[in-house]
């Protein structure tokens, strides 16, 4: 549902698409991760890639010792296990900039688009015909007319409410567009997968600067939230609370590859020839791992979260727009709290999906009784999907903490290793705590009977939410 509910309300068309998913979606399963709890034959030093290629074991160890901060021994062990679980190497030499909420994120994206010289690749779940969507589309059309090749992947269900004329205008300007898994079964007979959606948010400009996170192209991001605002604006004036990343350096190639691979998977024609993979020099000192998930894949994001939570020794701070955890993730959080780890969750008080909210609430009492602290963000719709664990393992991405994201959607997360970035993430988490209300166990136990019923009812559909 999270992949379907990123609007204030669901249109009739989108409700129909969801109903088809419920009827036709096969009950695939997430993998059993018990093997990740036992000692693993992980490499002593994880694989490390920089602008010149894969580093030797000795050089990789030296780089990690320099970059991972005072907790480097534990962080190195976590990185090795995470590589074994996901198959993705660490990439060094990157500049990573945290972007908070829509105005800052959209401004940074538009600045990169304005400076484009060769290519712009955009992948998004929502692309709406509203004031922001029209402005962004006009910029892309202008760049296409300047000779920059623009290519866009947009999710067919996420954009059901967007008039086809909106995309036709861009197509007529020469922009290449691809609708991911169209709703009509006629489009791809025998390969129709309406329950599998593209929930990624990726922008890559000239193969040199990339963006990833939770921000879509919709007017909900025209305004900021209360985050670091210092004022008390009316709720009606607030935008969604979200987090995004701007990345420069060798990791950009990994994001570019994910876009190109996804385009090719749809078999709708080749991308125009451009210099999609220019030589990338070191741009900063951040160590990252770009992880992605897709239906039928190896569940990289799911495994990375599990490994990080299992290995936590001090703190687990999660911000989750949609929180409907499966049995294994829930158990790992409960066990972490019971062994003394400071587990705090920031979840929505205002949601764009009622069933998701009730299903999420159905876990509250069990988590509170285990010692997990739960906070609900005030005033704004929470859409961020972030985590910082032990102050050294951080992730920002499109993946929600639910079965839909882990199993049925194409998702993208960027893991950033190290204390310095971890401190930035912790600072942001503490800011959000200031704008949140803590849920108290004794108060929660006395919630109304009708709310308990809706929680029970919604929990029955948690697989599809």
Describe this protein's structure.
The chain has 15 helices and 20 strands. It is α/β, with parallel strands linked by helices. The protein has two domains: 12-94 and 285-459, Endonuclease, Chain A (2-Layer Sandwich); 96-265, 2-Layer Sandwich (Endonuclease, Chain A), CATH 3.30.870.10. The strands form two sheets. The chain has an 18-stranded mixed sheet that branches. It starts with 11 loop residues before the first helix and ends in a 6-residue tail after the last helix. Residues 7-18 have low confidence and may be disordered.
How many domains?
2
CATH superfamily heading of the largest domain: Endonuclease Chain A
Mean pLDDT reading: 87
Weakly predicted, low-confidence segments = 7-18
CATH class of the largest domain: Alpha Beta
Question: How does the overall form come out from the CA principal axes?
Answer: globular
Number-wise, the strands total 20
**Which bin fits the share of residues in helices?**
25-40%
What gap, in angstroms, lies between the N and C termini? 4 Å
CATH topology of the largest domain: Endonuclease, Chain A
Report the C-alpha radius of gyration, rounded.
21 Å
Tally the helices: what do you get? 15
CATH architecture heading of the largest domain: 2-Layer Sandwich
Label the structural class. alpha/beta
In terms of DSSP E residues, the strand content is 15-25%
């Amino acid at each position: 549902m999270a992949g379907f509910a990123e609007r204030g309300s669901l249109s009739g068309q989108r409700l129909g698409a969801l109903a088809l998913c419920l009827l036709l979606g096969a009950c695939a399963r997430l993998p059993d991760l018990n093997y990740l709890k036992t000692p693993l034959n992980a490499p002593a030093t994880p694989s490390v890639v920089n602008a010149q290629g894969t580093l030797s074991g000795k050089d990789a160890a030296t780089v990690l010792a320099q970059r991972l901060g005072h907790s480097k021994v534990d962080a190195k062990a976590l990185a090795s296990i995470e590589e074994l679980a996901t198959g993705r190497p660490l990439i060094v030499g990157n500049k990573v900039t945290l972007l908070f909420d829509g105005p800052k994120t959209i401004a940074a994206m538009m600045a990169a688009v304005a400076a484009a010289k060769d290519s712009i690749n955009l992948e998004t779940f929502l692309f709406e015909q509203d004031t922001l969507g029209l402005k962004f589309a006009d910029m892309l059309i202008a760049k296409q007319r300047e000779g920059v090749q623009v290519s866009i992947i947009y999710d067919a269900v996420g954009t059901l409410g967007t008039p086809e004329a909106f995309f036709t205008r861009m197509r007529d300007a020469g922009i290449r567009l691809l609708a991911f898994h169209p709703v009509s079964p006629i489009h791809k007979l025998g390969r129709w997968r309406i329950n599998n959606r593209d929930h990624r948010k990726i922008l890559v400009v000239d193969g040199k600067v990339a963006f990833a996170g939770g921000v879509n192209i919709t007017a909900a991001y025209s305004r900021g939230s209360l985050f670091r605002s210092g004022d008390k604006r009316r709720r009606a004036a607030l935008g969604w609370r979200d987090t995004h990343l701007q990345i420069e350096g060798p990791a950009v190639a990994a994001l570019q590859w994910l876009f190109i691979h996804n385009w090719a998977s749809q078999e709708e024609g080749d991308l125009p020839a451009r210099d999609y993979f220019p030589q990338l020099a070191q741009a900063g000192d951040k160590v990252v791992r770009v992880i992605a998930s897709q239906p039928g894949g190896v569940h990289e994001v799911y495994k990375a979260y599990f490994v990080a939570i299992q290995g936590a020794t001090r703190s687990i701070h999660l911000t989750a727009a949609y929180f409907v955890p499966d049995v294994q993730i829930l158990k790992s959080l409960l066990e972490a709290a019971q062994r003394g780890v400071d587990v705090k969750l920031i979840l929505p008080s205002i949601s764009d999906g009622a069933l998701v909210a009730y299903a999420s609430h159905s876990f509250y009492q069990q988590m509170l009784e285990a010692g997990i602290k739960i906070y609900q963000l005030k005033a704004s719709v929470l859409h961020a999907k972030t985590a910082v664990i032990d102050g050294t393992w951080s992730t920002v991405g499109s993946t929600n903490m639910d079965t839909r994201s882990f199993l049925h959607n194409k998702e993208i997360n960027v893991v950033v290793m190290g204390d310095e970035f971890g401190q930035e993430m912790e600072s942001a988490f503490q800011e959000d705590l200031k704008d949140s209300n803590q849920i108290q166990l004794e108060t929660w136990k006395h919630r109304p009977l009708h709310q308990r019923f809706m929680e029970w009812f919604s929990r029955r559909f948690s697989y599809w939410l």
